[in-house]
Amino acid sequence: MLLSNIKKLPEDFLWGASTSAYQVEGANLSYGKGPSVQDIKKVPEGTSELDVCADFYHRYKEDIALMAEMGFKTFRFSVAWSRILPDGVGKVNQEGIDFYSNVIDECLKYGIEPLVTMFHFDLPAALEKKGGWLRRESVDEFVEFARILYENYGDRVKYWLTINEQNMLTLVGEVIGTSDLSGVTNKYKKVYQENHHMLLAQAKAMKLCHDMLPGAKIGPAPNISLVYPASCKPKDVLAAQNYNAIRNWLYLDMAVYGRYDNLVWAYLEEHDAIPDMEPGDMDIMASGHPDFIGFNYYNTATVEWAQEGGEAKMGDQQSGANEPGVYKTFKNPNLLRTEFGWEIDPEGFRATMREMYSRYHLPLIVTENGLGAYDKLTDDGKIHDNYRIEYLRKHIEQIKLAASEGVEMMGYCPWSAIDLVSTHEGVVKRYGFIYVNRDEFDLKDLARYRKDSFYWYKKVIATNGEDLTD
Ligand code: BGP
């Protein structure tokens, strides 16, 4: 729709940005923290270990001061489960509790609302060794972890996110480094059983949040990308519906309505992968009631009909999956790509928001969106990342359009507040507004520099998104 009246964003719109513990903190085996699955994985060849990252653990005060300088209203960060509970259960690490307590206080000092992700790709290794999310006990282990967080931080944290990109943990856990499927006979059965437990854990954690913290708000944080059909051929449309269900709606239908998507159910039946359930599971699922939907968006996906036969192929969290008989990724010729090959689709962002709002009618907060690039620090200490400004500007414009069309928009937290270690492509794939002076293997001085996008975003926030010019 062409709009002649672009409305202003709400005054309390939550402008900010995101990070995750294992990618930003460093100190991954210090101060009482136990290893997580990220710490025991073999990092992809040519990429750095996770022992230092951006050294946020030691420099959070300096970093939060820079976020305050940009005018952040919120800061999305995650809590490392194994920093709080080194073995995943049992003994609490007081130093870990204190660390996040200090981070929260530091945010509040500047009027920045902490937006806390409870779990971002880093299951405690001790739990993984016992069988991880495949065990039914994982549900209560997560809920106990949630209870500890609510008890310690609930007096100060109003906004909570449950599980980051549960859909990607399920679909591409091997790329993220969270799952090893070698030797597994029916990988569908395994990953969708784990998924079922995560869904139960999420529903219980949302309910507990409402019981313990009546003023708080909580929601899921999947990676949602509307899936386009490659053409108007009816079979391509069916393929797009398949992938939309498998990639997107399964997770949000469960979080919001507490029911399994029927296409996904049929797909699981086909693969002999219906999860084992206990009586009452679906009541638990229906008891969650998120207050909003957090979602990560990088780009859309496009698929075509996939003939029977051939091999299933996995991509990363944004691109390139293929399942014979279900869908096949199609390179969208209408879109540009980033240096790392991810498609760029701001209008698809609006389409995704429209679709989500019409399905769920809950306020939306963007918990990730951004451009990974090889930024260069100039001799005079500048980073001219006009390509990032361009990317973000185009996406914010679409938020304003979606909001003008009646989509309730709560906030925008691009990835990432500060440079950090990418999921599988190392330190050189930078996303931040704040440059961290290190290379893949040379830690240099880890000094912070304001990128051009830093100054631009500051102005965007100061004008509540009205001035998007350079
Ligand atoms: C999301 C993850 C983030 C982040 C981001 C960018 O899937 O939630 O943790 O890493 O993608 O991805 P990448 O680091 O692979 O470029």
Topology:
Elements: E1 14-18, H1 21-24, H2 37-40, H3 56-70, E2 74-78, H4 81-84, H5 94-109, E3 113-119, H6 125-130, H7 137-153, E4 159-164, H8 166-176, H9 187-212, E5 217-221, E6 227-229, H10 234-257, H11 262-270, H12 281-286, E7 293-296, E8 301-304, E9 322-323, E10 327-329, E11 336-337, E12 343-344, H13 346-360, E13 364-368, H14 386-404, E14 409-412, E15 434-436, E16 448-450, H15 452-462
Parallel strand pairs: 1-2, 1-14, 2-3, 3-4, 4-5, 6-8, 7-13, 13-14
Antiparallel strand pairs: 8-10, 9-10, 11-12, 15-16
Helix pairs in contact: 3-5, 7-9, 8-9, 13-14
6-O-phosphono-beta-D-galactopyranose is lined by residues 20, 23, 164-165, 168, 223, 296, 317, 368, 372, 415, 422-425, 429.
Keywords:
eight-stranded parallel sheet; single chain; TIM Barrel; four-stranded mixed sheet; binds 6-O-phosphono-beta-D-galactopyranose; 16 strands; alpha/beta; globular
State the major sheet. Answer: 8 strands, parallel
- Alpha carbon gyration radius: 21 Å
- Mean pLDDT, to the nearest integer, reads 96
CATH class: Alpha Beta
What structural category do the secondary elements indicate?
alpha/beta
Which stretches are poorly predicted, pLDDT < 50 over at least 5 residues?
Answer: none
* Unique bound compounds: 6-O-phosphono-beta-D-galactopyranose
Question: What fraction, in percent, of the residue positions are helical?
Answer: 25-40%
Question: Looking at this structure, what is the CATH superfamily?
Answer: Glycosidases
Query: Per CATH, what is the topology?
Result: TIM Barrel
User: Count of DSSP helices?
Assistant: 15
**Strand share of the residues?**
5-15%
How are the strands of the biggest sheet laid out side by side?
5-4-3-2-1-14-13-7
Task: Give the overall shape.
Answer: globular
Distance between the termini: 27 Å
Number of domains: 1
Number of DSSP-assigned strands? 16
Question: Which architecture would the CATH scheme give at its second level?
Answer: Alpha-Beta Barrel
